[in-house]
Amino acid sequence: MKRLLWLLIALPLLVILVVFSVNNREAVVLNLWPLRYEASLPLFLIVLGALVVGVLLGLFLEWVFEGRNRSALRSERRRSAASERELRKLREAEARRAGEARGGPEGDRAALQAPLSTALPAPSKR
Predict the structure, then answer these.
(1) What does pLDDT average to over the chain?
(2) Helix extents (H) in the chain
(3) Is 2 inside a domain boundary?
(4) Are 17 and 48 in contact (CB under 8 A)?
(5) Which class for 24: exposed (0-12), middle (13-18), buried (19 or more C-beta within 10 A)?
(6) How many structural domains compose the chain?
(7) Which three-class secondary structure state does DSSP give residue 104?
(8) 115 — alpha (psi -120 to 50), left (phi > 0) or beta?
(9) Whole-model pTM?
(10) Do 72 and 48 lie in a common domain?
(11) Is residue 46 part of a domain?
């Protein structure tokens, strides 16, 4: 599906590019003003070159400006991983404590049980 969508977009753009290039083959003098250079190039090369430079410049600037978001995302991922490690350790400790309470020695268990008789001892006479 992605390949079909890509072809539906790329094929017409390729046809437009070829038609544009064939129709604009005339040489144009490109004067690079602050420098003393001139270049005689076909018009389609100048237009397509400017388009490529603009896209690359835009991608670079977007990458630079999104650096803060990438940094924040990395720190959040580290924080999340640390929280998950801590949660796993706490769950393991809780499971160990629950296992010890259920399967511990009988002496500890007897000490925690309530006495069978609720009668109070007789007061001593002094």
Answers:
(1) 86
(2) 2-23, 43-65, 67-103, 106-112
(3) no
(4) yes
(5) middle
(6) 2
(7) coil
(8) beta
(9) 0.55
(10) no
(11) yes
DSSP-derived 3-state class of residue 29: strand
Tokens encoding 108: 């500890």
Residue 121 belongs to a domain: no
16 belongs to a structural domain: yes
Token pair for residue 43? 């018009």
Tokens of 80: 């999340």
Q: How far apart are CA 36 and CA 33, in angstroms?
A: 7
Residue range of the domain that includes 35: 10-55
Q: Which two tokens stand for residue 121?
A: 């001892």
Residue 30's Cβ-count burial label (10 Å; 0-12, 13-18, 19+) is middle
- If asked whether residues 41 and 75 sit together in one domain, one would say no
52-85 pLDDT, tens digit per residue, is 999 999 999 999 999 999 999 999 999 999 999 9
Amino acid at 25: R
- Evaluate whether 42 touches 24 at the Cβ level (below 8 Å): yes
Q: Give the position of tokens 């959040």.
A: 76
Q: What is the pLDDT of residue 100?
A: 85
**79-to-60, 66, 69, 85, 94 alpha-carbon distances in Å:** 29, 20, 15, 10, 22
DSSP 8-state class, residue 53: H
